[in-house]
Amino acid sequence: MTVRPAVSADADDVHRLLSAFVTSHRPDRAVFDEVTFPHVLRAAAEGRAEFLVAERESRVAGYVLAVRMPTLFAGGTVLELLELTVDAHLRGQGTGTALVRACQARALAARDVEVTVPTRRAAAFYRRLGFQETAVHLKWAKEHRTDLSGTRPPS
User: Fold this and answer.
1) pLDDT value at position 24?
2) What DSSP string describes the chain?
3) pLDDT at 146
4) CA–CA separation, 13 and 79 (whole Å)
5) Which residues of the chain have pLDDT under 50?
6) Is the CB of residue 146 less than 8 Å from the CB of residue 153?
């Protein structure tokens, strides 16, 4: 297995993995191709993100996306791991671990203060890799942005 930076030729494989990974959003292929995938590649090239793929037998078997954020509270940048997925039939064989470890190595090289990960389904996996629970993760989703009065719009 090889872990390497994602490139534009990985779009089809990354989209395939993304489509199987997401639960709260449905990826739109046109938006992916024209906006999000090129944006993420650019952010990685500029050092604002880490976007890595794992290859097994010349095929992309998984990817990880982490964003680097400047902070005041931590006294430096924090690398937040936002997406990690591996082909379902390859899970449990070390691919996800290799991708996370590669992110951690890049965080050390970039002198990030910490690596964080919000997760809903994989807390046990990250705990096995030495991550510790430190916070509750909340979100304000696009569908809730019509009312800024502090309450949710009526259903």
Assistant:
1) 75
2) -EEEE--GGGHHHHHHHHHHH-SS----HHHIIIIIHHHHHHHHHTTSEEEEEEEETTEEEEEEEEEEEE-STTSSEEEEEEEEEE-GGGTTSSHHHHHHHHHHHHHHHHT-SEEE---SS-HHHHHHTT-----------GGGTT--SSSPPP-
3) 59
4) 24
5) 154-155
6) yes
Positive or negative: CA dihedral 112, 118, 122, 127: positive
* The two three-digit tokens of residue 93, written as one number: 């064989």
User: Is 117:80 a contact under the CB 8 Å cutoff?
Assistant: yes
Question: What is the rounded CA–CA span in Å between residue 46 and residue 67?
Answer: 11
Euclidean distance between the first and the last CA atom of the chain, given in angstroms as a whole number: 48
Which of 62, 44, 43 minimizes the C-alpha distance to 53? 62
- Per the CB < 8 A criterion, the answer to whether 1 and 54 are in contact is yes
| pLDDT value at residue 107 | 97
Q: What number of other Cβ atoms are within 10 A of residue 41's Cβ?
A: 19
